[in-house]
Amino acid sequence: MSTKQVERQLIVFDFDWSLADQDTDRWVFEVLAPDIRRNLKNIKDDFEWTDLVARGLRELHEQGGTKEDIQGALRIMPFHPAMVRGVKTIKAAAKPQTTFLCLSSANSVFISTILESKGLQDLFTEIVTNPAEWDPSGLLKLRRHIDPDGPQHNCPVGCDANICKGSELDAFLKRRGTDYDRIIYVGDGSNDFCPVLRLRRQDMVLCRRHRSLERRIAQEGEGLGLKCQVRYWAGAWEVEEIFKQLPETVAAS
């Protein structure tokens, strides 16, 4: 089997429970308004999740929760130092040239606030997520990445209504026009399964243990033609370890 040197690689991160060590949506309410968090848990099966979080943010605002409260909660959310170290090291390396992409069902404000607090504000070339913005009153207004009143993605793999990460990965690759020698996808959730199916045999998924992506790979991967290498991890230190041990060559496609 012929091989080629890895000159350019793309590393794609999900955010919650992948780059970060918590779920941003749930964390903010657990810290600031456990009553809202309990309600979200009780009715989550009846509503689209992003819409539900947007409603929770309005309720938090009505209870007196401020922009500063939300930012403070995000800045103390668990985020492993080994993950910070690992992504900074691989981005700074001269070879291979590494591009980072974030595909997340969190939102732009949560993600940017946390990244800035960790000194990672320049990590990602693009962040594809649900848009959010502060209004003058301090309310965080959140909406779906895919407008519920517009064309829907119709993903056959079962992506969440607000985003099809597989389509977003394809669109990013088309926009960039770059032939990456290797793509590495770091994820944990069911909605990470669709983009993982797009990966080639020289690519790799770093799948977090004991979460829904692991189950979908085990139950559906072979039947749906999963081609990429699968590496499993439980703690961020293991992702850093895998990054350090990445081979310099991959199988030629």
TrEMBL record:
Alphabetically ordered keywords of this record: Hydrolase, Magnesium, Metal-binding
One GO MF term: phosphatase activity
Alphabetized Pfam families for the sequence: Put_Phosphatase
Active site: D14 (nucleophile), D16 (proton donor)
Cofactor: Mg(2+)
Binding site for Mg(2+): D14, D16, D188
Database matches in InterPro entries: HAD-like_sf, HAD_hydro_PyrdxlP_Pase-like, HAD_sf, Pase_PHOSPHO-typ
PANTHER family documented for this protein: LP01149P, PHOSPHATASE, ORPHAN 1, 2
The protein's name in its UniProt record: Phosphatase phospho-type
Source organism: Lactarius akahatsu
